[in-house]
Q: What sequence folds into this?
């Protein structure tokens, strides 16, 4: 049974606040949510838990543990959770839409420009490489700030087991990502796909995203770049690269995939499918999740799940940094041997500068500097 002193669950029939302020709050947050899921989850904690006090830190971390065992992008699901805490079920929908809208619009623009811009041209390649370096720094800071309270709050007897599950989660996600691979590329077809079919593919992709968006890539590549698909594996990876530098959940690469298969209608259909599970779990299961988070016997398990959740996203962050630095086995990168020192410099900046706009300023400024470096190369 839930604790008697647990935070009262807001009415799901009579939201405690208007929906427009919730939508606008998450629209503003989404417009500066650069850096991927690790940074976004930390940003949600800072903005809506520490600053706005919509819920408590322990409750937030335990809810993150619940969502970790469900498919879907954790950052987007936590937006829906916080919106529901504030304004009932439709508050969760408003929060989720606000968070994803900036990234969706930017990805639609990027998808339309993809056939025009050459991603290998020095200015474009330099901008993407520099923005990924900035994202690495934001990820390091976010992982540090997510791990610290979990470690501090753990009792002495729980510290070692939590450390074990945290490290095991990092190892597991790296093994999955390196071992999953892409489907064998087949003959592509230029025939446009029906929006309903793209919605179905997006829905399946949304249901297999356990542990992060990268886990959906093998399925997406099998239907989009396999026999009878509509794009190449390189285009799938390009979509991931573009998504990684946008203020959006990483699964927004589904918008890119859908656009390549069916234009704007295909992009919106695939996007709706891949995000539907994230909206649905909170809309339908919020009451159960809140009772679970408030139930004392479940708290120890949820605390361990929160360590697993942070470990998984930390593992994905390590992968991102490895790829940014040249991958394994080693491959050439735009800034060559300067990549690691530049990451270190960016890390120093984000730990020293405490302003809430440091993420968008750093990422956009790095992109501009990278483009100039490309022009001068």
A:
């Amino acid at each position: 049974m839930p604790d008697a002193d647990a935070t009262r669950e807001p009415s799901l029939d009579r939201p405690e606040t208007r929906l427009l302020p919730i939508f606008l709050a998450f629209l503003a947050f989404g417009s500066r949510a650069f850096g991927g899921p690790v940074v976004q989850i930390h940003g949600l904690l800072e903005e809506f838990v520490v600053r706005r006090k919509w819920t408590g830190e322990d409750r937030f971390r335990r809810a993150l543990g619940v969502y970790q065992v469900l498919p879907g992008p954790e950052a987007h699901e936590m937006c829906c959770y916080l919106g529901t805490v504030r304004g009932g079920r439709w508050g969760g929908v408003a929060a989720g839409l606000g968070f994803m809208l900036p990234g969706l619009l930017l990805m639609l623009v990027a998808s339309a420009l993809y056939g025009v811009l050459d991603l290998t041209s020095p200015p474009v390649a330099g901008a993407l490489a520099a923005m990924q370096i900035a994202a690495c720094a934001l990820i390091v800071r976010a992982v540090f700030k997510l791990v610290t309270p979990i470690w501090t709050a753990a009792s002495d007897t729980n510290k070692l087991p939590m450390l074990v599950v945290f490290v095991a989660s990092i190892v597991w996600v790296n093994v999955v990502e390196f071992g999953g691979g892409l489907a064998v590329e087949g003959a592509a077809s230029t025939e446009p796909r029906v929006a309903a079919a793209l919605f179905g593919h997006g829905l399946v992709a949304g249901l297999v995203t356990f542990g992060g968006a990268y886990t959906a890539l093998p399925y997406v590549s099998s239907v989009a770049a396999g026999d009878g698909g509509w794009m190449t594996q390189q285009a799938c990876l390009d979509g991931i690269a573009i998504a990684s530098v946008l203020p959006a959940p990483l699964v927004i690469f589904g918008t890119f995939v859908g656009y390549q298969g069916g234009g704007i209608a295909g992009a919106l259909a695939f996007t709706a499918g891949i995000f539907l599970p994230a909206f649905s779990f909170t809309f339908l299961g919020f009451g159960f999740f809140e009772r679970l988070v408030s139930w004392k016997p479940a708290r120890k398990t949820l605390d361990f799940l929160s360590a697993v959740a942070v470990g998984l996203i930390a593992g994905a962050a390590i992968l991102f940094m490895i790829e940014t630095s040249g991958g394994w086995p080693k491959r050439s990168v735009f800034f060559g041997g300067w990549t690691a020192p530049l990451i270190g410099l960016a890390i120093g900046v984000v730990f020293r500068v405490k302003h809430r706009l440091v993420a968008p300023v750093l990422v956009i400024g790095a992109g501009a500097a990278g483009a100039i470096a490309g022009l001068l190369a």
Notes: Residues 200 and 254 are 12 Å apart (CA to CA). Residues 19-376 form one domain.
